[in-house]
Specification:
2 domains, about 60% helix, elongated, single chain
């Protein structure tokens, strides 16, 4: 039986499903813009089309109110980065390890959200005791969503590199080792051990 959506619409529906599963709330349109690397009007038109076709519902004027109407079992697999984006190949592709399309998409979403979280950290001067647990929760949500340990490690390493860069901006003489020691000091014992294993 033919699905009630086009392949492109299916990708948006799958993204909405995975994002909502990961974060307990629907995505904002800007997050779809980042993930699909399209313009805001393109995403908005897609949302209107999905709503018109009865595939989603939403509350007009209310942020993050998109709800899927279809059961998740009939949604397609979420694909990774489009080949047409011209983006450099991720590390796992250059090393010959192919993740599933869904795993590639989740990894890509994780990297986008790490960038956003660090941008928020830079602009809002969060205390590390608040920020590091948020960072840990973000990484943990991707681990719980089924991202393989190899990919979770990749997200952790990226988070550590970002944190080190932030520390060096404030204190140029700081070392990666001392910055990681500082970062891990804000994590409870079991989580600290897990990060040490991942990085």
């Amino acid at each position: 039986m033919k699905p009630p959506y086009t392949s492109r619409q299916g990708q948006f529906l799958a993204f909405i499903h995975y994002y909502t599963t990961l974060h307990g709330r629907p995505p904002a349109e800007v997050e779809m813009v980042q993930f699909f690397q399209v313009t805001p009007p393109t995403v908005h038109q897609m949302i209107l089309t999905l709503e018109r076709r009865g595939l989603i519902t939403r509350e007009p004027g209310q942020a993050r109110s998109i709800r899927l109407v279809l059961p998740s079992e009939i949604l397609p697999t979420l694909s990774g980065a489009s080949a047409s984006t011209g983006a450099p190949l991720p590390v796992w592709q250059t090393q010959g390890q192919q993740p599933t399309d869904t795993e590639a998409a989740l990894l890509r979403l994780g990297k986008i959200q790490l960038e956003d979280l660090f941008a928020y950290y830079d602009h809002n001067s969060l205390d590390d005791s608040e920020f590091i647990p948020l960072l840990d929760t973000l990484i943990e949500s991707f681990a719980r969503a089924g991202l393989s340990e190899v990919r979770v490690k990749e997200l952790c390493r990226q988070a550590c590199e970002h944190y080190h860069q932030c520390c060096q901006e404030a204190e140029p003489e700081s070392t990666m080792e001392s910055n990681m020691e500082l970062m891990f000091s804000y994590l409870p014992g079991p989580r600290r051990k897990l990060w040490l294993r991942w990085t």
